[in-house]
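Shape is hard to put into words, and the shape of a protein is harder than most. The fold becomes a row of whole numbers, each drawn from a learned catalogue of backbone shapes. The outcome of that step, for a single protein, is printed below.
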Amino acid sequence: MFAALLLLASGASGCSKETNNCKDRAVCGRENDSNGLSDEAAGSDGPGEDPSADSADFAGSPDPSSTGEAHTAEPFPDAESAGDTPEDAVESPSANGERPGQGPRTMFLSDVHPIEKDVRKGTTEIAGTTYTSSVWKDIGPSSSLNSVYVVYALNADWTTFTADVGPDSDSRSDVVVDFEVYLDDRKLGETHRATVTESAHIEENVTGGIQLRLVAKFVSGSRNGSYSGQAAWGSARLE
């Protein structure tokens, strides 16, 4: 009888231990499974991150299809709309032929070489006024100096010739000189007479011209010697 009771007690104890072991294994298994799922759902390698955080962010993002608005990719802006100008682009001239920030195109005859006859150039004084970018030639009563000229190429690139003319300040005080302008052997305007004390202004239309010829003629003055001074074109220029 005593042995039977002892056997029953021993079996109950063993069953309890096994039951406890099963409970431990079950609890441990659930924790391991739960931890593994949490780590995988959170997308991290370590424990402790809440997998619901990313889910909440994703759930809060609006579905484009639910708003009824189609998503259309915006085209890349071209150079003009973006405000970029190609480096080799050239600015267009304005209605009056000027380019922005430059003003009218001007070429001084002192900056180019004539195609016929030599000429001196630089700064000179005519009737008390100093002119930069000027040209001049010797003039006098002799046959070699009583009519002098110089020729420039235009090539139909210019519209206006302008200059103030007269004997320069180094000329004899009584010399009188006539100035004339020819465009392709055709005389332009009138003859302009000038003295040491009184200059003349020339402004002629040379549109379409190929060659410009400037002529100076000795009119009167001292004939003592062949030389009377210089016939000068002050600040002579093409525009």
In short: Helices lie at 2-42, 52-60, 64-67. The beta strands are 107-108, 120-126, 129-139, 147-153, 160-167, 176-183, 186-195, 200-205, 211-220, 229-238.
